[in-house]
Each structure stands twice: as structure tokens, then as C-alpha cells.
Design goal:
Distance between the termini: 84 Å
CATH superfamily of the largest domain: Rieske [2Fe-2S] iron-sulphur domain
Helix content: 25-40%
Strand content: 15-25%
CATH architecture of the largest domain: 3-layer Sandwich
Length: 188
């Protein structure tokens, strides 16, 4: 009789008990809850729709007078487009790499598109702490080198977007861009 009562309380090794079913349901619920919490968190790290919509920007160059610059927005970043004068181009080309804080991509010819030396296109974010340098408006200070001046910590960039003075460690970044015609560029 002892054997039959033991069999009633302990099922054979292949049988599923109520406890096994409850554990399976609890683990499944926990996995679904973890996924429901993780999905929005991970999805929030994707770029927003307005940023994706601005994956490229076309810029009409015709209204930009020689010696002036404009700011356009691309992927939430300011892009400086400057129509350089012949004097600015000559000054930028005459700079020796040994005079630069960041000689990487320091030659003026490496920072502009061939045949379009008069146009400089750079990301307008100071490489020190991410400020936006001044220098696109005629009334803005441009520093000793005629390019851009970051008033926050005094970094100065020349007319080729190269850092020449101050705490900024790198030149202004070059965004991907291409000339679609002599009067239009596409950034991105």
C-alpha cells in the first residue's frame, strides 16, 4: 500500500506536473515582458524620421556672393558653405603643413573638390567642445586667419576650415558632398 500512495504523489519521469506548467507560463510571461520593455528602449536609439528625411540636402550656390557663406542644416548639423575669394584661396594654399595644429587633410586641395576651389563645405561644429563657430555673417568675427572664430574658448579656423589657434584639436570636419552642377551641391 505504501507503494501505491507514493506513486500518486510522485509522477513518472515523463509526466508533466502542474508545477512545470506554472513555471513554463511564468518564464514565458517574463520573456514577453522583457521584450515589451526592451523594444521601445532599443527603438528610441534609431534616428528620428525628420533626421532620416534630411539624409541629403541640395544647396543652390547662386545667391552666395564671393566672400560670403551660408549655413544649411544636414542631419541636425550646421554645414558651412563659403564662396571664397581669390585672396582667401591663395592664402589657404600657401599655408605649410608644419604651421597646422592638425595636418591631417591639411592641404587646401584635399579640403575642396577639384575644379571648385572657390567653394568650401565643412561641418560647422568646433572640434573642441562642439560649439558653433562664428564667421558666416559679414558682421561675425572671423579670427586672425579670416575663417571662423569660436568665442567659447577662442579656437580659430582659417579659410580652409583648418584649426590654427586655440584648444580645438582637429580641423572642421568635411561632410560628404558632390557638385550636381556648377551652381548646385548635394550634401549627404
Amino acid at each position: 500500500m505504501a507503494d501505491s500512495s507514493a506513486a500518486a504523489h510522485h509522477p513518472a519521469s515523463g509526466d508533466v506536473t502542474k508545477r512545470d506548467l506554472l513555471q513554463l507560463i511564468a518564464l514565458s510571461g517574463a520573456a514577453i515582458a522583457a521584450g515589451a520593455i526592451a523594444w521601445p528602449l532599443i527603438d528610441s536609439m534609431n534616428p528620428s524620421k525628420d533626421v532620416l528625411a534630411l539624409s541629403s540636402v541640395e544647396v543652390d550656390l547662386t545667391p552666395i556672393a564671393e566672400g560670403q557663406g551660408i549655413v544649411v542644416s544636414w542631419q541636425g548639423k550646421p554645414i558651412f558653405v563659403r564662396h571664397r575669394t581669390a585672396a582667401e584661396i591663395k592664402e589657404a594654399q600657401d599655408v605649410k603643413l608644419s604651421q597646422l595644429i592638425d595636418p591631417h587633410d591639411g592641404l587646401d586641395s584635399e579640403r575642396v573638390k577639384a575644379g571648385h576651389d572657390q567653394w568650401l563645405v565643412v561641418v560647422g561644429i568646433c572640434t573642441h567642445l562642439g560649439c558653433i563657430p562664428l564667421g558666416n555673417k559679414p558682421s561675425d568675427p572671423r579670427g586672425e586667419y579670416g575663417g571662423w572664430f569660436c568665442p567659447c574658448h577662442g579656437s580659430q579656423y582659417d579659410t580652409s576650415g583648418r584649426v590654427r589657434h586655440g584648444p580645438a584639436p582637429l580641423n572642421l570636419a568635411l561632410p560628404p558632398y558632390a557638385f550636381e552642377s556648377n551652381t548646385k551641391i548635394k550634401v549627404g
